[in-house]
Amino acid sequence: MPNSPLALSAEATVLLCPYPQRAIYNAHGAMDEASSYHCGK
After folding, report:
1. FRET label pair with 26: which of 1, 4, 10, 17, CA 20 to 30 Å apart?
2. What are the boundaries of each domain within the chain?
3. How far, in Å, are 4, 6, 18, 23, 26 from residue 9 at the CA level?
């Protein structure tokens, strides 16, 4: 199978929050890292 630019993989971490909370960005840090978010409403 030939290599394709579309075959590149990305790595990100996800913050899982209990319902009804959601992940909220802290306005600092990498947007693809869970440590840059907190759980809130």
Report:
1. 10
2. 12-40
3. 11, 8, 28, 23, 25
The amino acid occupying position 16 is: L
Token pair belonging to 19:
């319902």
Q: What is the CA radius of gyration of the chain?
A: 15
CA distance 3 to 12: 22
**For a pLDDT cut of 70, what percent of the chain falls above it?**
78
Q: DSSP 3-state assignment of 3?
A: coil
- Over 90: is that where the pLDDT of 25 sits? yes
**Any long-range contacts for 38-41 (C-beta under 8 Å, 24+ apart)?**
39/15
